[in-house]
Specification:
The protein has helices at residues 13-23, 41-47, 49-53, 71-83, 94-106, 121-130, 153-162, 183-192, 217-220, 229-232, 250-260, 267-305, 340-350; strands at residues 87-91, 112-116, 133-137, 141-142, 147-148, 168-172, 179-180, 196-201, 224-227, 240-244, 309-310, 323-324, 331-332. It has 354 residues and is an alpha/beta fold.
Length: 354
């Protein structure tokens, strides 16, 4: 039986395995066809020799994402530890893939899932794939800002009582605009009625690494959370994590993931997840503290101009806006009679941005 690795957050097992493999100077007779750049010199020139030399195929020294038993498994255990989850799964199909695997792990064809109207299109795709039946909770909108808010706990409870056969509740944590629902209360409500609670945390990776940020899904007791590492976690685009709480069977979740995730996982994406997790675990609190201070400074300066409104925690009302992600810097321009895209065009023209 394989012994559990020591959870040393200073290590990056996938990246370290790639470096060892690179030093072995193995001659490739398999895919990828660019043969570490020799078969495509323009690609090697664009990306660099180090990058193309690490774009390799799954093999024994490097483990396999579909059934990890060594370095990928170690990296997933480190990720679970860093994020306070029971289990973590490395995802290379973007957070769309993580969200879809999350939904497919929780509901089957004909089963109900309670969710807000302002879900990401990946949730819609998941319901098409599995045949689940949506029960929508309509979030309030802020009239001045023109943005949807979070789900009221009372509205979630109303949906649960009207649909006691629902299998899960899905929550955005946060929304695209940084708005957070009372996730902990919704988790407790869902569990009290025998339902799972799922969190789309595409914009909430950083919540896990500073106490002054809104509560993360795993801290709130959610059963599954799709975390977009490439958005605020520092990994390469298209890399993500699916986190699971103690009530979920990791074997079942892995089976669901393998229904749609590639069997040719990119080691560039995997190693970026590994390195980004290490960076967050070691330096995340300090870095996100700095980001919060910079965002607050920018808000003060923008609001001092007049005509613009960079909103923050003053929106919190304890219900539809239970909390707010202060790293999110959004500016309302309607008071000057311009839409955001019009301001973008003006700035582009002013500074000759092509």
């Amino acid at each position: 039986m394989r012994s559990m690795p020591v959870l040393d957050q200073t290590s990056a097992p996938i990246y370290e395995a790639l470096e060892r493999f690179r030093s072995m100077r193995v001659v490739p007779f398999d895919v990828p066809g660019h043969k570490r750049g020799r078969g495509n010199p323009e690609l090697a020139k664009l990306l660099g020799e180090t990058c193309v030399s690490m774009d390799v195929n799954s093999m024994k020294p490097l483990d396999n994402l579909c059934h990890p038993v060594s370095v990928i498994r170690d990296a997933e255990e480190l990720a679970a530890d860093a994020f306070g989850a029971a289990h973590a799964f490395l995802m290379v199909g973007g957070t769309t893939s993580a969200v879809q695997s999350m939904v497919l792990s929780a509901v089957k064809g004909g089963e109900k899932i309670i969710l807000p109207r302002n879900v990401h299109r990946s949730v819609m795709g998941a319901m098409v794939l599995c045949g689940a039946v949506p029960v929508y909770v309509n979030p309030e909108c802020d009239d001045r800002l023109g943005i949807p808010l979070g789900m009221k706990v009372s509205e979630v409870e109303r949906a649960i009582l009207a649909n006691p056969d629902a299998k899960a509740v899905l929550v955005n944590n946060p929304t695209y605009y940084g708005i957070c629902s009372d996730l902990k209360a919704i988790v407790e409500l869902a569990h009290a009625h025998g339902m799972l609670c799922l969190a789309d945390e595409a914009h909430g990776t950083h919540f896990y690494f500073h106490e002054d940020l809104p509560m993360s899904a795993m801290a709130a007791g959610a059963d599954l959370a799709a975390v977009s590492m490439h958005k605020s976690g520092g990994s390469l685009t298209q890399s993500s994590l699916l986190l699971a709480g103690p009530n979920m069977s990791p074997g079942h979740v892995r089976q669901i993931i393998n229904l749609t995730q590639t069997t040719s996982a990119s080691y560039l994406l995997l190693s970026s997840l590994d390195i980004a997790r290490r960076n967050l675990a070691l330096r995340g609190r300090e870095e996100f503290g700095r980001v919060m201070r910079m965002a607050d400074y920018a808000r003060e300066e923008i609001n001092a101009i007049g005509g613009y409104y960079a909103y923050s925690r003053e929106l919190i009302n304890g219900d539809s806006v239970y909390d707010f992600d202060i790293t999110k810097l959004s500016v309302n321009t309607l008071d000057i009679g311009l839409a955001g895209i019009e301001v973008y065009d003006l700035l582009r023209d002013e500074y000759d941005i092509q």
